[in-house]
Design a protein that fits this description.
Length: 260
């Protein structure tokens, strides 16, 4: 059984722990406050370490699940040569190496909010010090909460836009469609449910199909029909360009935050 220690036991740590198979992993948490950690540990049926030092001594893999600004103080205070996994947005392998050592094994992971329903889309990258065996264990951890994509670190900013921020844009799209349903006389709750179910099934269609999305658009657009009228209207209103601009704005903002 692999011993995993979570430093920080907030939303994301709890979501990951909920998805983990407790027969494969022995899990300990250490949050900001011991009594709070004990409460969370008992809810999640894991154990709470008395402090970070105890957790680091026990764990085989340490997951840093605190906000990015907390990581420097933790890594400065607690030294260990055990593999660390960071889920902190915007903190690079180079940043983490600077805070530890050139020989430190580090995995950088970027889950998204869908971890809360065990359907995260997660990006992962390791440095050269991480063994294949350790990397396989870390991949098992994050596969338990959804899908996992091994990506180059240079693509983390784009991944963050496509998977981290995009739920907000998809919520906006669903709400806009559902509002249109209201405009045409349907109740908002029913409209939202109908659109959300359709978005989910359409995404499943894309994943199940070898066709690219535009072919699927063509497949539902019969000549002179209703769907093509809407497709043309979306295009006349720059739907594709608007979405691409939004993703580019997200990627650019991420770059500017990394530089400041
Ligand atoms: N939420 C997301 O959708 C998401 C997605 C991708 C990545 N992430 C990353 O995941 C990390 C955690 O985010 P989150 O959403 O889980 O935040 P969160 O709910 O605020 O959890 C962070 C936890 O760390 C605790 N903490 C603060 N200082 C600490 C310390 N010195 N030692 C131990 N624990 C400490 C906080 O306790 P207090 O509340 O008592 O301060 C809180 O419980 C962040 O780095 C974020 O960038 C989050």
């Amino acid at each position: 059984m692999t011993k995993i220690g979570f430093i920080g036991a907030g939303k994301m740590a709890q979501a990951i722990i909920k998805g983990l198979d407790k027969s494969k992993f022995s899990i300990q948490i250490s949050g900001y406050d011991f009594s709070e950690s004990e409460k969370v540990a008992s809810e999640l049926e894991v154990s709470a370490a008395k402090n970070h030092a105890e957790l680091i001594a026990t764990a085989e893999i340490i997951i840093l699940a605190v906000k990015p600004y907390v990581i420097p103080e933790i890594l400065a205070q607690y030294k260990s040569n055990k593999p660390i996994v960071s889920i902190a947005a915007g903190v690079t392998l180079a940043n983490l190496t600077e805070m530890t050592s050139q020989t430190q094994a580090i995995v950088r992971v970027m889950p998204n909010i869908n971890a809360t329903i065990q359907k995260a889309t997660t990006g992962i990258v390791r440095n050269n010090n991480v063994s294949d065996e350790t990397f396989a264990i870390v991949k098992t951890i994050f596969t338990s909460i959804g899908s996992l994509h091994e990506i180059a670190e240079k693509d983390f900013g784009t991944f963050t836009a496509l998977a981290g921020s995009s739920p907000a844009y998809i919520y906006m799209f669903i709400d806009a469609m559902s509002r249109a349903g209201v405009l045409h006389g349907m109740p908002k709750d029913a409209s939202t449910k109908i659109v959300a179910e359709t978005v989910m099934a359409s995404a499943e269609m894309i994943l199940a199909s070898d066709d690219n999305p535009w072919t699927l658009v063509d497949n539902v657009s019969s000549p002179g029909g209703t769907t093509v009228a809407g497709v043309v209207s979306l295009e006349q209103n720059n739907f594709v360009a608007t979405v691409i601009d939004a993703i580019t704005a997200t990627v650019d903002k991420n770059k500017s935050m990394m530089q400041s």
